[in-house]
Specification:
Blueprint lengths: L14 H11 L9 H15 L13 E6 L2 E5 L12 E8 L5 E5 L7 H18 L18 H29 L2 H11 L3 H6 L5
Antiparallel strand pairs: 1-2, 1-3, 3-4
Helix pairs in contact: 2-4, 2-5
Amino acid sequence: MTQINKQANPQGKGIVGVVTDLRQQISRHVAAKDHSQILADYFTSSLVLIAQYSFKPVMGVAYYLYFREGKWSLSLIEPEAWTSSPGLFFARCQLNEDRTWCLQTIADWQSSSLLAAEIERLQTDFIASLNNDHTFLEQLPFYQSNLNYFQRLGAYALAHSLQRSLLNQYGQQHSTMLSARQLLLSGLKQNKLLLNNLAHNSDS
């Protein structure tokens, strides 16, 4: 008889603990947002969620996003406190009440060829992933098996937030029928490049 090996939960969570964590990620304070803002929040927040980290981010705490050897990492340690280089510092990050992320990028990140190329690559991939006729809500990251536990919690929280923002702004019929391509084209009308949305978040 073939033995099936179940993958252990690396955080040691039972089903009750997982459900509790998921419920805690759902924000009760989600504002209505138009297509452009939803698109920008989705892209910006995704930058954080692809980073490596092994803790549960909370509101009111500053985190720091670094890029090194083709990988992103999110840390509680600010750039000046490191004794060895963690990589290129890109942005100071904070988790918003609605579970999207705010990034305050360094002022001259576009002058770094590595950072500029990586952000442009991520933007291109992000746009390509939404350039289809599936509904936008179907493609939100409610569950991402390739992410670790805390990243999956963050992705679930982001998906729920963006869904509520769309529903609050446009209602059930529009939101459930809207294709990913329609939202993409509408959202990019005001901001031709998501790169510009990200740069405008910088005040450093």
